[in-house]
Each structure stands twice: as structure tokens, then as C-alpha cells.
């Protein structure tokens, strides 16, 4: 990613966290990024259009962790456990950023771009499901693409319930993870 664009994104995250989305201005963002205001508009049309890039950065962080920690040799049920751990950890660590993303995207026309941001995430998970199906690990009637989207939604929503809405402790998070894995296991036919 271009250094100036990255600086804008990082500055936007900080400005949105400090001032909130409504009170933040493009001037605040460019000041934090150390660039001219005109440079901002080379990359983004408005302060809210930065939300898509922030969402992309967070999705890339999740995928990076998945690629680093989910090894092909692992059995599918173990891959699923690792993904659940990663998503819960990322949402816990970046709960404020995820809250900003959801608030910013929900208040704009950019919400429909979400699937494009998640495309590589969905593709990775779908591939894992296809392999598990070919290996006879999951039910034969499973549709990998649709199931990947559903599972990602399930895992992220469960993590958000714990860390974004109620700020519950790690013990409750462990119980929620266990329930997500049991639910997913039954749905997948594991």
C-alpha cells in the first residue's frame, strides 16, 4: 500500500477514535497524516470513504493471522478452532476500530462494498470447506461458498457480542467460543 494512503488511513483511525465520525474533519485527518489536504482527495472522496480502506486493513490483518497460523496439514476441526481464536483475539484487540468501521459503513452508501472487502476471506474459508468436503469430513450436501459466508458471520458476530457490546471477560469468551465451535460442528456434520 502507498505510504501516503497508509498514513491517511492510520490518521483517520486515530481521529475517528478521538473525535468520533461526525466531529472528525478531513483537515484533522490530513494534519495527523502530515500531508496536504489536496493529497487526501487523490485517494479518497470524503472522510467516510476512508472507512472502506480501514475495513480492508482489518480484514487483511485477520487474513494475515490466518495464513500465519492455520497450516494446511491441520485437520479441519482444528483449523476452525484456530480461526475462531484469531477472530476473537482480533476483535478484542481492535474493538474500537471495528466499532468505527461498522458505524461509518452503516451511515454511508459503502455498506454494499462489504462483500468485495471480504472476498479473499470468503474464498480462503470456502477453499477449506471444499477440501473438508472432498475429504469426507463435513456433510456432502454442504455448499462451500454460502457456508463460508455464514460461518464468518457467525464467528464475527459471536466475538462482537462479547467484546464490542458487553466487554465480557475471557471466561465468558471461552464459553462463547466453545458454543460457536459446537454449533458450527453440528451444522457442518463434523
What does this protein structure show overall?
This is Transcriptional regulator, TetR family. Residues 2-62 form the HTH tetR-type domain. The protein has 190 residues and is mainly alpha-helical. The protein has two domains: 1-44, Homeodomain-like (Arc Repressor Mutant, subunit A); 47-188, Tetracycline Repressor, domain 2. It is built from nine helices and no strands. It has helices at residues 3-19, 26-33, 37-43, 50-69, 76-93, 95-106, 114-134, 144-165, 170-188. Helices cover 76% and strands 0% of the residues. The model has no long low-confidence stretch (mean pLDDT 90). Helix 1 (3-19) packs across helix 2 and helix 1 (3-19) crosses helix 4 (50-69).
The helix count comes to 9
Number of strands: 0
The top level CATH class name of the largest domain: Mainly Alpha
Instruction: Please indicate the count of domains.
Output: 2
Task: Determine the fraction of residues in helical runs and give it as a percent range.
Answer: over 70%
Which structural category fits the helices and strands?
Answer: mainly alpha
Q: Calculate Rg over CA atoms.
A: 18 Å
Largest sheet: none
Q: Give, in order, the helices and strands.
A: HHHHHHHHH
First-to-last CA distance? 40 Å
Amino acid at each position: 500500500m502507498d505510504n501516503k494512503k497508509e498514513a491517511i488511513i492510520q490518521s483517520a483511525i486515530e481521529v475517528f477514535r478521538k473525535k468520533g465520525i461526525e466531529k472528525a474533519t478531513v483537515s484533522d485527518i490530513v494534519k495527523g497524516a502530515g500531508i496536504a489536504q489536496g493529497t487526501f482527495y487523490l485517494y479518497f472522496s470524503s472522510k467516510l470513504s476512508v472507512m472502506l480502506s480501514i475495513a480492508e486493513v482489518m480484514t487483511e490483518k485477520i487474513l494475515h493471522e490466518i495464513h500465519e497460523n492455520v497450516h494446511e496439514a491441520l485437520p479441519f476441526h482444528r483449523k476452525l478452532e484456530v480461526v475462531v481464536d484469531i477472530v476473537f483475539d482480533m476483535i478484542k484487540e481492535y474493538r474500537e476500530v471495528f466499532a468505527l468501521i461498522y458505524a461509518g459503513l452503516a451511515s454511508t452508501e459503502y455498506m454494499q462494498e462489504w462483500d468485495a472487502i471480504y472476498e479473499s476471506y470468503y474464498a480462503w474459508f470456502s477453499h477449506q470447506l471444499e477440501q473438508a468436503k472432498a475429504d469426507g469430513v463435513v456433510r456432502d450436501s454442504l455448499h462451500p461458498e454460502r457456508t463460508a459466508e455464514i460461518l464468518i458471520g457467525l464467528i464475527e458476530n459471536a466475538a462482537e457480542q462479547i467484546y464490542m457490546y458487553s466487554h465480557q471477560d475471557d471466561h465468558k469468551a471461552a464459553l462463547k467460543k466453545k458454543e460457536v465451535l459446537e454449533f458450527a460442528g453440528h451444522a457442518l456434520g463434523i
